[in-house]
Specification:
The structure is a homodimer of 226-residue chains. Chain A has 226 residues and is an alpha/beta fold. Chain A has one domain: Rossmann fold (3-Layer(aba) Sandwich). Chain A has seven helices and five strands; from the N terminus they run βαβαβααβαβαα. A five-stranded parallel sheet of chain A has the order 3-2-1-4-5, with helices on both faces. In chain A, β2, α2 (39-53) and β3 (57-62) form a beta-alpha-beta unit. In chain A, α6 (166-175) crosses α7. The longest helix of chain A is centred in the N-terminal third of the chain and has 15 residues, at 39-53. Chain A is globular.
Chain lengths: 226, 226
């Protein structure tokens, strides 16, 4: 078995990479720069994650036209990354249809190299409510891959953590020996995580619930034992 | 009504643009450079097509990572563009899953600007047999858009020429006053069309059948009246 794994530098895709490493004899790590504010850090970590997991091949693709298209606080300097305000509606960090771009790129790479699986660390329930993280979206995109590639091409989208909570993902990662110090969740900073944006708060709360101390540093003081 | 129109510089998308211009009060022309050998010419023509049709906005997006991924004679210098050898299996010019990338980009742009339609000049029957030109592919991608964007976002994929033959497309274009001199089909050359690649041969034959003289120049002599 072989697989393309979308590795963002985040925690969910890192655990997904660990799962793929167990399932696949050959892995191909794909990192996509979409002009997000924390790309510098994420790319650095992607390189380190590749050193750690030693995939057969790795590819970095630049689609920073998503920054030009704009509309998301992750890519648009005019829009501030907001502090966490509860999991209500789709937050301003939503990058329109972003994961469809990721899947399209992974599919093209997979089709050329006859790779049978695409792993993506999307999380549906316990996440920010992005529409392109829904399980139903992946089912429909699977259909688009089946119909939009050669008949002999067989590519399966795998979303091994989609039904897990962030806490479960951390616990699973711990069991799989995932190097969480090589992951980054902050939407805002490239050096020390802010601890206040949506993504930091979800991560911190999940580590607390898992009763594991997050190995990365935060700008604010965190009581991991509370 | 408003619409994003994918304008490649080719004949099918040019006629599609003319149709969209009739249907939409506001049009947004999108051109995508995917590292194809004839991009220089196509981008030039895109600019001229914009001058002609005066869309509300225009956007050029670079996804030449498809060239890096390779595997197609359109983007890979190691693979020659073959001469026409009949419409059999999927030709080497197939760029893996290319139109999914195009649709994803159009969708992101449309979602941000609340544009309701995406026009793409795909042709199913009378074409080169690319899987990402099948009507069923567009139906499945429509579903992926519905599920992968915000619930309030409503975007429809329109493929107005998908069931037409190339000859019918030319006749329709003629009726709509399409400036065919601003279109390019050759896969190989940037200056004078080769007249021998798949795409040139389909175009030439269609013009002949339509009993219309193609306004562009070819390297080989063509008897338009035969």
């Amino acid at each position: 078995m072989n697989g393309v794994i979308l590795v963002s530098g985040g925690m969910d895709s890192l655990v997904t990479a660990a799962i793929a490493k167990r399932e696949c004899a050959e892995t191909f790590f794909l990192h996509i720069n979409y002009g997000q504010k924390t790309e510098k850090k994420e790319l650095q970590l992607f390189q380190k994650i590749c050193e750690f997991y030693q995939p057969e091949d790795q590819l970095v693709v630049n689609i920073d036209y998503l920054q030009k298209i704009g509309g998301s606080s992750l890519t648009d300097d005019k829009l501030a990354v907001r502090d966490f305000a509860g999991q209500a509606k789709i937050p301003t960090s939503y990058v329109p249809f972003r994961n469809a771009h990721f899947l399209a790129i992974a599919t093209s790479w997979a089709e050329i190299h006859k790779i049978k699986n695409i792993y993506i660390g999307a999380v549906e329930e316990d996440s920010s409510g992005y529409p392109d993280c829904r399980k139903s979206f992946y089912h429909s995109f699977q259909k688009a891959i089946d119909l939009g590639t050669k008949d002999e091409t067989q590519i399966m989208i795998k979303t091994p953590v989609i039904d897990l909570s962030k806490t479960e993902i951390i616990k699973l990662g711990k069991k799989l020996g995932v190097p969480f110090e090589l992951s980054w969740s902050c939407y805002k900073n490239n050096e020390i995580a802010c601890g206040k944006c949506d993504s930091c708060v979800l991560r911190i709360n999940a580590f607390k619930k898992a009763k594991i101390i997050d190995p990365i540093s935060y700008e604010i003081e965190i009581n991991w034992l509370e």
